[in-house]
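Hi Q.,

Before the meeting this afternoon, I wanted you to have the zinc ion prediction in hand. No need to reply - just skim if you have a minute. The sequence and ligand are here:
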Amino acid sequence: MSSPPSIVSGYDPKNDPARKPQRSKDPAWRFGYWPNLQNKDEVACTLCGGSVRGGIKRLKQHLAGGYGDAKLCSGVSTEVRTEMAAYLDANKRKRPLVLDDEVVEVAANEAPANEAAAVVQPSSGTAAKKSTKTKEEKHYVDTQWALFFYECGIPFNAAVARQFQIAVEAIAQYGSGYKPPTPYQLGDPLLQEAVKSTSTMREEHERAWKHYGCTLMSDGWSDRRGHHLINFLVNSPEGTYFLESIDASSEVHDAYMLAGLLEKKVEEIGKDKVVQVVTDNGANFKAAGKILMDRIPTIFWSPCAAHCLDLMLEDIGNLSEFKKPITRARRVTTFIYRHGRILSAMREKTGGADLVRPAATRFATAFLTLKSLYKHKDALKSLMVSEAWTGNKLAKTKAGLDVHDIVLST
Ligand SMILES: [Zn+2]
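Predicted structure with the ligand bound:
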């Protein structure tokens, strides 16, 4: 604190024009001034002689009353209270959007809020200005974004996407009055530009393909309507580049057609650049890989390692030593997960943890299931003797008795 201005000299800080902003329309300045010019976060109240921290907005709250973190002024009249409350209310909506006199004042006068660290500061070259906004102001902006996410069904983790942070920063840099693109702009001119810049990106990848050679990768999957789609990707030291996704429903069962498809892609990239082709290990792809190696001798076909391991685990799972426990484990998990009340009793026992359940096409999960059952063995045993189990009619069915025996015998 600097030494208080002398009263003896006749100087009254309340009347010092230097202790208020020059051209503020904010009505609260009629009752406030900066008692300490080194810290304009603090605003003194002429009605009660106290002071508030948090700038002129906090003084308004002090005068209006009804704000948890600002104590009501002891010297304020009902008239002033009403005036301040109305002003706060009217500005609630437009403040973050319109950078009027009021907001400029607030920005200039308020110390960095505690949540400044939480403000996105992407290293996009333009150093983000230190936040001088209040908690309430940040909360308002947060709320608006949240509603946008909810209304448009945007996945929450889109909020951590780097492009989201860059876009937000870009708006902040632009300042007030920014109008977002229209659906037309998004769908046409901006899209065209984005496509063009992707081609520039491809050029960089192509240089790497030429310099180091590259791997053509294909990843097949089926959608819910039974279409078989294949993604084609090219990997090089520059990274992985997505070529395209095609509907190969008619080709996928025919090794020659698959080989033709792969060959076409290789030719698009350049036979001299592609050194390897990686596909999953399905019989058709395997055969297609062989055909391709015959047609283009400089190319080597490799099966996808993850898929390979999965197939190995499938074979291991079919050995009698494993087959029985896996079947039994599946019976336990299927039963528990089919019955809501038993499932919630189980989660109580495991402390909220879920069991890993085997999936149809991922054989690794069969082993993960065994591991997870082993881990929760005691919890499952205690479930079998609990009220939730013994009092449940399902426990007395054949399947229920089976599960009971399996769990207690291990
Ligand atoms: Zn006061």
